[in-house]
Design a protein that fits this description.
Helix content: over 70%
Number of helices: 13
Distance between the termini: 36 Å
Low-confidence stretches: none
Number of strands: 2
Shape: globular
Strand order of the largest sheet: 1-2
Radius of gyration: 20 Å
Largest sheet: 2 strands, antiparallel
Mean pLDDT: 83
Number of domains: 1
Oligomer: single chain
Length: about 325
């Protein structure tokens, strides 16, 4: 289930690249290029995605977590500022991360942008030290440097490129990874007092409100070249988002978060492969150095997930020995 969730999210990123860049499906059928991607159009795509996700999530929420409305009522009635700021803040950080990721994907390709997004442990590990007192050990420091090296290897050909691939895409992807790290840390704080399902629903509502206010407040006008193609793509993006969330939710229940994160770490490799297979072209054909970088980042994130399992097993064994 977690692998299917990762597949859904990888397809989501590939579809974003198709929306912004004219491509050929399997190298044969012309497809995509429905809208010129910038900050405004990225907001619009995210807004369309929420139009699909929110109603379905409102319907499925009580099935996944029956006391969801009670929990949401508690959230709004509580005076716990730390909880409220962490939940709303996680939605805000996810909003920024997604908008910037869309810009990076269209500019650099889904595989490269997703790999740079996965630099988030470089930020989450120091944040966990500051906020939770989880001082990084030598292993984590080594893995952080490995991930950072992998990101550099992946981004180098893009930075050196003199074609239509631009350097701002690298900056957008890095910023997306930083905000995604802030989102994950905020989620970790939120889950201590609130179930993941109501937290996710509140996040989706926050993203919808933020995109709506931004589109109206900034007076952004979107001029798609293919309205029907953009409309269908928005529906598919929403469906893939919800599928990824549901499959991951069930997968975590069966496997546990630590084991599920190992499979989820395959995101960069899977995205790069799908992008090349579905839409072969300039943005999806990677240099050897980029393939090495993607592999290094994937192995680094996987290593951190394995460490979480080892720590969890040690804690359980200690508790069991104390009981005996």
């Amino acid at each position: 289930m977690v692998l299917c969730s990762t597949l859904a999210l990888s397809l989501h990123n590939v579809l974003v690249a198709i929306i912004g860049n004219p491509s050929k499906l399997f190298g044969i059928v012309p497809i995509g290029g429905y809208i010129s991607i910038g900050f405004g159009s990225s907001l619009f795509i995210l807004w369309m995605r929420m139009l699909v996700v929110l109603p379905l999530m409102t319907w499925l929420g009580p099935i996944l977590h029956p006391p969801i409305w009670r929990d949401i009522r508690y959230f709004f009635e509580s005076r716990d500022r730390r909880l409220m700021s962490s939940v709303v803040g996680s939605g805000f950080f996810l909003f920024l991360s997604q908008v910037l990721l869309y810009i990076a994907i269209v500019d650099m390709g889904a595989g490269v942008a997703t790999t740079i997004l996965f630099m988030y442990p470089v930020v989450t590990v120091p944040l966990a030290w500051v906020l939770f007192g989880e001082r990084p050990n030598r292993f984590r420091v080594i893995v952080m440097f490995a991930i950072l090296s992998g990101v550099v290897l992946t981004a180098l050909p893009t930075i050196w490129a003199t074609t239509n691939i631009s350097r701002p895409g690298v900056g957008a992807a890095i910023a997306s990874g930083v905000f995604f790290a802030c989102y994950l840390v905020s989620m970790q704080i939120s889950f201590r007092k609130l179930h993941p399902v109501p937290v996710s629903l509140i996040q989706f509502v926050a993203i919808f409100i933020l995109t709506s206010i931004s589109l109206i407040g900034l007076g952004i006008e979107v001029a798609p070249t293919n309205r029907w193609g953009l409309f269908v793509s928005g529906i598919v993006l929403g469906a893939l988002t919800l599928a990824g969330f549901l499959l991951n939710n069930f997968g975590v229940r069966f496997m546990g978060a630590a084991r599920a994160s190992i499979i989820a770490a395959s995101g960069p490799v899977l995205t790069a492969f799908l992008a090349f297979f579905i839409t072969p072209g300039e943005l999806t054909v990677l240099h050897f150095i980029q393939l090495v970088g993607i592999l290094v980042v994937t192995l680094g994130v996987t290593a951190l997930s394995f460490e979480r399992i080892l720590i969890q097993n040690r804690r359980e064994s200690r508790q069991a020995s104390k009981l005996n």
